[in-house]
Write a structure and sequence with these properties.
Chain lengths: 407, 407
């Protein structure tokens, strides 16, 4: 087996690691929660502030095309998810976009009213669906929330919409996007995919997969900054028909006519609501520049190679944790989870030792693999530190701290 | 009459002008559209990027209390609008917040369903109301949209909600907040105020005025940056009952428990939806620091003094424009509008000459007065330039440009 140093030296994506800011000595395995900062972000922000806001003031909406930024950011996101620029618009948050897309999809598929969601997927997906049901009532939306194993059976010829997370935020289990979209279409249902945990780390092809609607965020693997904007994807074939219910002025066909009656913009323009945050979008726009010319097959290959090294290393070292993610690489997203009864304390000890992953209740250690940021050495350091922590039962003590390895 | 120089020298708020970045030679009379950048904004942003996102990464949510930022920003906004910190939360955009507040208010005042809005107020207010009606149907919301003069008569004992812009975005006409709130309450209606054009430039006292709900933005007079976050205000007495319909995970009582069922947070916390943009909120938070210890009576006094100088100057110079704002200072917000048949060309010529106001179709020249930014000299330069432009009929020619006065 090659050493981490050898693999890092051969890594065709290795040159990108320097594009991101990770503190010296930190092994950052949480890019699936908040991506690290692109090193060019502060300069991009400084230009926006000093040269645009500071110099152009209100004129920046035209001169610097702030007004077109949601669309331009959307076009960059489109390249990452395999869509056309026309099909993607950056706007709002995932929660709000799910609300908009659910209403749009339900209306397109009326009189069907059944929405299938998976129990245990990221909570906001279910919360938003139930909130909409609370607003519209059971005669307009009927929620079927089932365990993962029962999702297939729940999708039937009464189903209006199937709303699923492409990659499960805890287990990393992944749906085959094209296959499950086809399954839904076969019975006349529409799909909404939450791509939060897959955008940026694999070759998504939402247009080819005939996905109807999707959303996701830019603050995880796409490194757009804390709370960076979300996006909507609306398939070309639905662009003229899909209508969302929050009629803000930015979604109007001609916002600056300030006309009395609402006429929604064409296409994804109608999915805009209020005035977009230019500052937030500019940071995400800068980050997305790093994702424009990537070979996402190679990105995924590296993700799987790192993940496999982590899984194999845990097995080889006989570490007392249990894999909570699929063994088969093609069934996983870009994070790997393990269970341990004292997962919370273990993760605290890991973080103190400079290996930053996530704890997810009740017993999950989650390690996000960012193929542009992480190295093989990161994986080895994670394994060594995990070994040290687990070997030293003091990790259960509240103030236990293992010395950080700096290699 | 004192000269502009004398008045500027005596101005108790004059020392604040240096806190904002306005290009040399520009007279910026558009702070009601986009406030100028506080000079400390780039450093604040740099600290957020380098020290927080760059160094703390995911840890920033706790270490730098990003998770509390919507509430902390809300508390700063509360000081500006005369509310308690518990009553205000920074979140989303005005359009989205109006949607949330309308649903909350309608539910509180059921079975009433009538919503009174003013025709010609800022379009998003009407658009959002009609969008909600389109979603819920006429048996749940019935919109009465009337001209300003007919608003009073439209508010009756069937009215559920009165949704009004405190200051009119074109004419600057202002409602007496306490008086109109009382008028609504007298017949059992609730009020939602859009404070976009008044927050930051006058002594608002929403709690004392018994306002039920309000929203507004931080990108106008509050100088939070292009597209900076909006906020909701919910009166203390409604905090335990008001429920909004977009059930995002950040509005959950315990978001990090990732529990299956939605339980809304207490108070304004339930008005959060998805993950907030920390970058956008940090810029606004920095800007709001300039508004924490202001005497808003003095701020308003200066606004009125500058506005009056502009109105009086137009009259004294016999400029061929017609005042489109109330003559009485107490009836105006912090902008002044004039009509001219060639308003578009006139404003273009003014902007080229360095006097930046706004054109509003079909014939309005709008000048925003920012009491912390603008000087008496700004007003004199605006008057002189307006005089020059109007005296030279070439302003109607597309490429006409009058030389910028630099004084």
């Amino acid at each position: 087996m090659k050493t981490a140093q050898e693999l890092d030296a051969l890594d065709p994506l290795g040159h990108l690691r320097g594009a991101f800011q990770v503190p010296e000595g930190m092994v950052y395995l949480d890019g699936n929660s908040l991506g690290p900062m692109p090193r060019t972000a502060p300069d991009a922000m400084s230009r926006l502030l000093h040269n645009e806001w500071g110099q152009e003031l209100i004129g920046g909406w035209n001169t610097s095309d702030w007004i077109g930024l949601p669309e331009r950011l959307g076009a960059r996101i489109a390249k990452v998810i395999g869509a056309s620029g026309r099909e993607v618009m950056a706007c709002d948050s995932i929660s709000i976009n799910l609300f908009k897309l659910l209403v749009a999809a339900l209306e397109l598929n009326a009189p069907r009213k059944k929405v299938v969601i998976e129990r245990g997927q990221f909570p906001t997906d279910g919360y938003v669906t139930h909130g909409l049901s609370n607003l519209l009532g059971e005669d307009r939306i009927s929620i079927v929330s089932v365990d993962r194993d029962d999702v297939a059976a729940a999708i039937d010829d009464e189903t209006a919409v199937v709303l699923l997370s492409h990659v499960h935020y805890v287990t990393s289990e992944k749906y085959d996007l094209a296959d499950w979209t086809e399954r839904a279409h076969a019975v006349g249902a529409l799909v909404i995919w939450d791509l939060a945990h897959s955008a940026g780390v694999e070759p998504l092809k939402v247009s080819d997969a005939k996905v109807d609607f999707a959303t996701g965020c830019t603050y995880k693997f796409l490194c757009g900054g804390p709370g960076a904007p979300s996006f909507v994807y609306v398939a070309e074939r639905w662009l003229s028909q899909a209508k969302q219910p929050i009629w803000g002025w930015m979604g109007h066909r001609s916002p600056f006519e300030f006309s009395e009656g609402y006429e929604g913009a064409n296409g994804t323009g109608q999915f805009l609501t209020g005035t977009p945050s230019i500052i937030a979008m500019a940071a995400a726009f800068e980050a997305l520049s790093l994702f424009q010319h990537l070979d996402f097959e190679a990105v995924q290959q590296k993700s799987q190679s790192l993940s496999q090294r982590l899984i194999d290393g845990v097995a080889a070292k006989k570490l007392p944790v249990q894999l909570a993610s699929p063994e088969e690489a093609s069934m996983r997203g870009s994070h790997v989870s393990f269970r341990h009864p004292d997962a919370y304390s273990v993760m605290q000890a890991l973080i103190e030792a400079g290996v930053v992953g996530d704890f997810r209740a009740p017993d999950v250690l989650r390690f996000g693999i960012h193929p542009l940021v992480n190295s093989y050495l990161d994986i080895d350091r994670c394994l060594e530190t995990l070994h040290d922590v687990l070997a030293d039962q003091r990790f259960k003590e509240p103030r236990f701290s293992i010395k950080q390895r700096v290699t």
